[in-house]
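Dear H.,

Thanks for agreeing to be a second pair of eyes. The structure we're designing against is below in token form, covering all 148 positions.
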């Protein structure tokens, strides 16, 4: 059943290296944190169903275990967290983000997607600005190292 995500609820984004995190520099690959390929949504973990960061990290480690056989360099390095309110408050030229429960992959699963203002230009510059604001809505990396 799809539920409304309240403004005060938190969502977390799993971060992996080397795709979203540069291990040598200990910094984010800013343009890869949220890519929205073909304007499709990005996945986040709804903390209502995964309340502790330790549980979020456990999910990241499970994902690492699944990906490593085909992508040996894939490493889960932690998560970043934001409130639903902070994500939904972002606006650039009237455009913003939608945050919706998407329980198809589990009741914890949610999607962040573009919320486009009708009859208003929506171009690459708007997308870049929106993604920068989205990154800023999330807090710092909460690091984690998985035990192999």
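And this is the sequence the design step returned. I haven't edited it by hand at all.
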């Amino acid at each position: 059943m799809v539920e409304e995500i309240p403004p005060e609820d938190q969502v977390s984004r799993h971060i992996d290296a080397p795709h979203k995190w540069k291990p040598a520099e200990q910094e984010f690959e800013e343009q890869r944190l949220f890519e929205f390929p073909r304007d499709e949504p990005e996945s986040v973990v709804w903390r209502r169903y995964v309340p502790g960061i330790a549980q979020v990290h456990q999910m990241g480690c499970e994902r690492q275990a699944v990906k490593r056989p085909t992508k040996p360099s894939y490493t889960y390095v932690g998560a970043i967290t934001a409130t639903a309110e902070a994500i939904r408050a972002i606006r650039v030229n009237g455009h913003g983000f939608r945050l919706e429960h998407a329980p198809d992959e589990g009741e914890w699963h949610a999607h962040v997607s573009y919320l486009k203002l009708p009859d208003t230009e929506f171009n690459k510059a708007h997308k870049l600005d929106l993604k920068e604001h989205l990154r800023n809505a999330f807090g710092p990396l909460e690091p984690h190292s998985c035990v192999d």
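Two observations from my side: The CA atoms of residues 28 and 105 lie 26 Å apart. The beta strands are 10-17, 21-22, 27-28, 42-46, 75-83, 96-101, 109-115, 142-143.

Warmly,
E.
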